[in-house]
Specification:
mainly alpha, two-stranded antiparallel sheet, 11 helices, globular
Length: 217
């Protein structure tokens, strides 16, 4: 991969392995310019696909709702959230993740999309509160702390902090991966670098972001 004079990187030709040229996968789920929406949509669709295969479990009256929800969190959510530590979330992406969570709960409760039931009713009936987006934030923050505590020079540090060389293109700056971390924690890049060194303090920050209602209690 070579760097261009605009600060971006050009992709090299397809590599040769054993005398054979390997073609690039056209539908590889990677994204450019910190745009992860396509990948997020794909992961959520796969999660819904797994949920559809569990339809008999959701419709089984002999299984308690609480058990079904635990199964959903163990079997469906991990598929949908796979690799979420690398996502750059925009407001629309956060809404999409929250909507996915509600769809899953409605499937568990066997609530038809035509039924006039509010999200609040669904949450109360299921006996849960929204937690999926909070889990994504928690995993991203934990991953950030893990990378920043690595000793010595580290390419991952440069990438997630946006300190790689090069200039950005014209126009409105796009939301970056580190923008999520700064927004959720309410800390500057300098403060973040200092806070992650103290594991106890960082765990408190992560917990506060993932559980905002319990932050003071």
């Amino acid at each position: 991969m070579s760097r261009t004079d605009r600060g971006t990187y050009s992709v090299p030709p397809d590599p040769l392995v054993g005398g054979r040229r390997l073609a690039a996968a056209p539908n590889y789920p990677s994204t450019d310019d910190a745009e992860c929406t396509k990948d997020i949509r794909g992961r959520l669709a796969k999660g819904l696909g797994i949920g559809a295969k569990l339809k008999k479990i959701w419709q089984n009256h002999g299984i308690r709702i609480s058990t079904k929800i635990r199964l959903m969190k163990a079997l469906v959510w991990p598929v949908a959230m796979y690799g979420c530590e690398s996502w750059t979330l925009k407001k629309d992406d956060e809404k999409r993740i929250s909507a996915f969570e509600m769809k899953c709960l409605r499937k568990v409760l066997r609530v038809s999309w035509t039924a006039k039931r509010t999200n609040e009713w669904v949450l109360e009936t299921a006996g849960v509160s929204r937690s999926l987006l909070a889990s994504v934030k928690e995993m991203k923050l934990a991953y950030y702390g893990h990378i920043l505590r690595k000793k010595g020079d580290c390419l991952e540090k440069e990438l997630i902090q946006g300190t790689t060389p090069g200039s950005r293109t014209r126009g409105r700056p796009k939301t970056t991966w580190i923008d999520n971390i700064k927004s959720w924690s309410g800390l500057s890049l300098t403060e973040l670098t200092r806070k992650v060194e103290d594991r106890y303090q960082w765990r408190k920050i992560v917990h506060g972001v993932a559980n905002p209602r319990n932050e003071d209690g």
